[in-house]
From TrEMBL, chain A:
PANTHER family: DNA-DIRECTED RNA POLYMERASE I SUBUNIT 2 (PTHR20856). It comes from Cinnamomum micranthum f. kanehirae. The lineage of its organism: Eukaryota, Viridiplantae, Streptophyta, Embryophyta, Tracheophyta. One of its GO terms (biological process) is DNA-templated transcription. One of its GO terms (molecular function) is DNA-directed RNA polymerase activity. It catalyses: RNA(n) + a ribonucleoside 5'-triphosphate = RNA(n+1) + diphosphate. This is DNA-directed RNA polymerase subunit beta. Gene3D superfamilies: 2.40.50.150, 3.90.1070.20, 3.90.1100.10, DNA-directed RNA polymerase, subunit 2, domain 6, RNA polymerase alpha subunit dimerisation domain, RNA polymerase Rpb2, domain 2. Keywords: DNA-directed RNA polymerase, Metal-binding, Nucleotidyltransferase, Transcription, Transferase, Zinc, Zinc-finger. DNA-dependent RNA polymerase catalyzes the transcription of DNA into RNA using the four ribonucleoside triphosphates as substrates. The keyword NAD does not apply. GO terms for cellular component: DNA-directed RNA polymerase complex. It is an enzyme of class 2 (transferase).
UniProtKB/TrEMBL annotation, chain B:
InterPro entries: RBP11 (IPR037685), RBP11-like (IPR036603), RBP11-like_dimer (IPR009025), RNA_pol_Rpb11_13-16kDa_CS (IPR008193), Rpo11-like (IPR022905). This is DNA-directed RNA polymerases II, IV and V subunit 11. One of its GO terms (cellular component) is RNA polymerase II, core complex. Belongs to the archaeal Rpo11/eukaryotic RPB11/RPC19 RNA polymerase subunit family. It comes from the Eukaryota. Keywords: DNA-directed RNA polymerase, Nucleus, Transcription. It is found in: Nucleus. PANTHER family: DNA-DIRECTED RNA POLYMERASE I,II,III, DNA-DIRECTED RNA POLYMERASE II SUBUNIT RPB11. One of its GO terms (biological process) is transcription by RNA polymerase II. Residues 31-103 form the DNA-directed RNA polymerase RBP11-like dimerisation domain. One of its GO terms (molecular function) is DNA binding. It comes from Cinnamomum micranthum f. kanehirae.
UniProtKB/TrEMBL annotation, chain C:
This is DNA-directed RNA polymerases II, IV and V subunit 3-like protein. GO terms for biological process: transcription by RNA polymerase II. InterPro entries: DNA-dir_RNA_pol_30-40kDasu_CS (IPR001514), DNA-dir_RNA_pol_insert (IPR011262), DNA-dir_RNA_pol_RpoA/D/Rpb3 (IPR011263), RBP11-like (IPR036603), RNAP_Rpo3/Rpb3/RPAC1 (IPR022842), RNApol_insert_sf (IPR036643), Rpo3/RPB3_RNA_Pol_subunit (IPR050518). GO terms for molecular function: DNA binding; DNA-directed RNA polymerase activity; protein dimerization activity.
Amino acid sequence: MAVPDEDDTSKRIPSPVSMKSLAAPVKSAVDKYQLLPEFLKVRGLVKQHLDSFNYFINCEIKKIIHAKDNERIVSDINPKIYLKFLDIYVESPSVEEDHIREPLIPQRCRLSDTTYAAPVKVDIEYTRGNPIQTEIKKGHVIANMPIMLRSRRCVLYGMDDDELARLGECPLDPGGYFIVKGTEKVLMIQEQLSKNRIIIDTDKKGRVSASVTSSTHERKSKTVIVMEKERIYLQLNQFTKLIPIMVIMKAMGMESDQEVVQMVGRDPRYSGLLLPSIQECASERIYTQYQALEFLEKKVVKSRFTNQKVHQGDFYPKCIYVGVMLRRMLEAILNADTIDDKDYVGNKRLELSGQLISLLFEDLFKTMSSAAKKSIDEALTKASRSSSMDISLHLKKDWITHGLERAISTGNWDVKRFKMNRKGMTQVVSRLSFIAALGHMTRIQPQFEKSRKVSGPRALQPSQWGMLCPCDTPEGEACGLVKNLALMTHVTTDEEESPLITLCYSLGVEDMSLLSAEELHSVNSYLVMFNGLILGKHRLPQRFANGMRKLRRAGKIGEFVSVFVNEKQRCVYLASDGGRVCRPLVIADKGVSRIKEHHMKELRDGARVFDDFLREGLIEYLDVNEENNALIALYEGEADSKTTHIEIEPFTILGVCAGLIPYPHHNQSPRNTYQLCRMDTLLYLLVYPQRPLLTTKSIELVGYDKLGAGQNATVAVMSYSGYDIEDAIVMNKSSLDRGFGRCIVMKKVSAVKQAYDRIIMPKMSSGKGGLDSHMQILDTDGIASPGEIVRPLDILINKQSATVSRDQLISHKVLPDSAYKFTPVKHKGTEGETTVVDRVALFTDKDQNMVIKFMIRHTRRPEVGDKFSSRHGQKGVCGTIVQQEDFPFSERGICPDLIMNPHGFPSRMTIGKMIELLGGKAGVSCGRFHYGSAFGEPSGHADRVEVIRYHRVSSPSVYIHGTYLLPKAKTYGLRLGEMERDCLIAYGASMLIFERLMISSDPFKAQVCRKCGLLGYYHHSLKTGFCSMCKSGENVSTMKLPYACKLLFQELQAMNIVPRLQLTEH
Amino acid sequence: MNAPDRYERFVVPEGTKKVSYDRDTKIINAASFTIEREDHTVGNVLRMQLHKDPNVLFAGYKLPHPLQYKILVRIHTTSQSSPMQAYNQAINDLDKELSHLKSVFEDEVRRHSRDF
Amino acid sequence: MEGISYQRFPKVKIREMKDDYLKFELRETDASMANALRRVMLAEVPTLAIDLVEIEVNSTVLNDEFIAHRLGLIPLTSDRAMSMRFSRDCDACDGDGQCEFCSVEFTLNVRCTSDHTLDVTSTDLRSSDPTICCPVDVAARATAALDPNSAYDPSEQRGIIIVKLRRGQELRLRAIARKGIGKDHAKWSPAATVTFMYEPDIHINEDLMETLTLEEKRSWVESSPTKVFDIDPNTQQVVVVDPEAYTYDDEVIKKAEAMGKPGLVDINAKEDSFIFTVESTGAIKASQLVINAIEILRQKLDAVRLSLDTEECDEQFGELGAHLRGSAV
């Protein structure tokens, strides 16, 4: 469908422009919202994790075992004895119990503290027996690999809601995490600089350097070219010292200096910069390849660098690569603008669970192989071999199983082979609320350490638009470093390279090896780079790029292949590697959206799915780099003839968590950020969860309306009772009585019955008739039964442990009572809480001991001091609980559930909350749910207010406010903050406040007009104060006030608010 | 956790008097009444009724703390009366007003249910 | 000690009366009295509500406390509550709330045997003595059955849902309803809504109003969020159609000022007239609720009378006291 369409448009292009604009259909904004749920239906919210893991399971793992070094295990002693891996596959999760394999379900793992893992099986060809015969064995288990929930191998894959519910799974749970030893662990998305790409940067000393981190299955290395004392050097791990660049070039067979200069470009400025390096090389008397290699020999092994492939020692591609690196670097020296931005999202790659697991797996696999080899050799050296040799038995599965399990449960990725030692890679899925869990899965962790006080990586990058959420980042040290994916972001996985490379050549790319050094930088053609690899040159880059894109839209090549023409660097970048972030956009032809109303209608009718849009070339994925070649209109109406793409929905720039806030665009932006961190403060299990009256579209997409985590409250904004200062809220006792804010807190208590323990029925004590008061909840089996009310110190398990030694335990079958010591499990609770045993679970752990788990529930109603929060980062503790009759009421009889202090609004500037209040009331009055999505309504005056506010933020007040210092230490001082000030006010130390906030801070002599109360100025020629309002200097007094105060007045005036000072004699 | 029991709000603890009287030691004809387990309901009607009495120079009440379930009523009268007298008078008047109100209301309910 | 009486004689006019709804005017008294009545109605008129639940079987999705809380919130008919005893001062049963003077027992025994979801509602609660106390919707059904003219439609009433059961789930419990007041827990509050407003006194400055054009009048009338004013289609004069719709929002006054006509309208609250709206939960009839409230308030005032010993204690000051008080004795 799409391709003929394409042709039609191209045919129409020659027609006169005026005619075309007349013939163009009237632009009507098609409501593309419906695409979003469709998108999420196919992709889910954690698709990036699932995709990545699936890719690992299906492809990556096979690549690993088929890699040259991994495929065979050959004995050193008898090379005829070998083992060859033919195939590897991961099965569905199962558990082996008493030699019977049975399928494993996630809920069981959570309850029994086991790992949700699947056997990894290999088909092997190996030698056995004497004489040696080759044999093929299929389905040999080499490991138990933890399986990501909802991935292709998970038992939950493709199940419908009913089936999920039957297995004890929440249908809304997105999956994307692992269960290791009973805890749910999510592998955080790791943010890294791109691999295999030239990055021009300045280092600490201000030197310009070009670096490439190359990474293949065989090796990983980092090559840096730096300029030091005007000479250019190469730095590589294999070499102990910096190597002059010219030596390297010569060593790679580029003996002629002229060729090197040609390769960099004939511009005299470049050769000028190269000159000192050439001289240095000459002074070392290195002229030939042999001399150069000899020189290198001294430093260390053979040179091998950059990711350019070497065929039979042909170093020419590498030379070209170095040439390109050099040229980019010299360019950067001459023109600082061309230095790459390390924080640019296009230069970043996200490492997902699949990639991380694959690294680990590869390492462990190699360890296992070498261990197997060692044990084979050992077995072979033994003189007498009674049984025939079976190599397959030497493959120990525990290596990989334990390695994976340990890494995931501790989060320490220790891969020595790749010099990798990272901590905190996994986190326990936060289950405080549904959104917290979802947000956790989209979180991106940086590679840098958090303590660094740099602003660069923390700043909001423009290239983050649509890819990473601009709001959702934590406060404090990780601010701006930890990010979250936006709603529609997709993270790519690796794609097969060779067909794409062939395609490039057939589309007219001239092979690099055929080019001379001179041609490399010729003006009339562009360099073509594929995944960092120099393919060659193309004379018509734009046409080449368009051709590639057309093929992509037609579905002939992968939808995530990116084509980016960099005019500045005169390069065409093609990328198909994994870890790039990209997002779908509607394609527009000369500003006309390809999606028409009939497409959307088909979508609504279910005749079309999201993938159809992709296949027909209506929508395509763009990554950050390719976005630079596109002109994207926010709304269809704003598109003009230059527009190439249109956003699907503007609010998708926000992430999962940010989407929950109604009207976020009306709030001061940090407030939104605060809210996101806040989601998880006090949410356990709400007794009466409600759907928010004011929803956002994101809420519906995420399914938050089905899993509510809040209640709608009738709120009065007023000051009341004095127990509401500092954001405290006053709550209505009757509302609490009726169930407002009630929640159930669940606590887990578990105990293991060791082999020498026994659990006995409580004995009736002969004394005061009946049971010990703490034993009343025990059932006949000596374990507290569900539904019983537990008080502190009550005994949950009436357990006794043997005091005698192990030998006696074995010899005597039944021990006397005296041999047991009382070791009960007691409930540790606080007095006054009514807790109840909710559930009791019994199972055996891996050591075959009985484990008893209690779920203890406690219903709690809000108390004074509990923390509550709205959706706008407006948190507050409950200051007091007041009877309903003491509460204000309206003449219609409405009595609020809680009272908020209005002082919370002005400084927070959460206009969005006020609008939410209005919207909520409107919703109640007309009985409908309303939308409060970001950018959902046409912007009105609110935006204009915002502009003023930005001015304020950038004003110098920022510097001045920080100067209230406590006298503690003169050199640095501590800030006398707002709260400290409050203490002083409360105490009444007025002179101290005066001194701190005025005299030792920022006293300022201001001219104040007694008549109009405004600030004047000192008129130097009149030698008196002058009021520019009254146009006279008669009534002007000089007074001292803090500069910050004067500034505030002036800022208020700028906002059309007149602050007047009334002066009286004192 | 350590919140007072709910009944504390309205059950007078044993051994405490519902109303206690405290004569002001400095000002004559001034006294404060501490009424246990009452709130604005009684406090406010009493105060307003006391204001009607021309012999009352001052009448006020306060709820000292939201967790102390008692009110303090302070009365200062002229020498023509005494705080206690004014207090009793106010209660008597309120009682009469309420019994009047009750009969009026019951009549009105009867009339209304007959008419409609 | 006989003083002159400062008693007031309030007037009452009922505007609308239904079983669970009452609207009346209260005049010639002050806000303290009106407010005291409101407060007593909300918090101190006693009713019955389930206070003690003994669960025998609960295989439903909701936990025991949850169900107990929901049971507690079901309004029960409480006409006899005034004459019943609080279980804490009941002599007959030692305060454990198990005797006829202070409690009513309920049982609930439901089990779902069909494939359809079964709603357990207040109608499933069996009272030990339905004449004294039963869920209000059950009582409403019973009275409707006796009165053929009633507008009660049993098909519309499904009872108050406690929990939903699916096949095989069961709920069996015993519950005891006791007398209590709203101050203790909101479940004992007999009032759904009790509110009063000052009767507004609206005076339009006719002369000033006539200086306005019809257009201005219309925009002024529309500035009120509630429909208080209207324009007479014949005379084109602004008239007050519903003074009580006014919510004291000052919008019309601000509008008049914005139009440059301050004093266009003068609105005052009548300090001694109140319009009460009382809605009952059904536990007590709305009219009875008011009567009970008056009675309770009287009892409360009676309780705060100075006890004899206090007076005696004052007398101990003897002559000094008498002297200070002058000749009033």
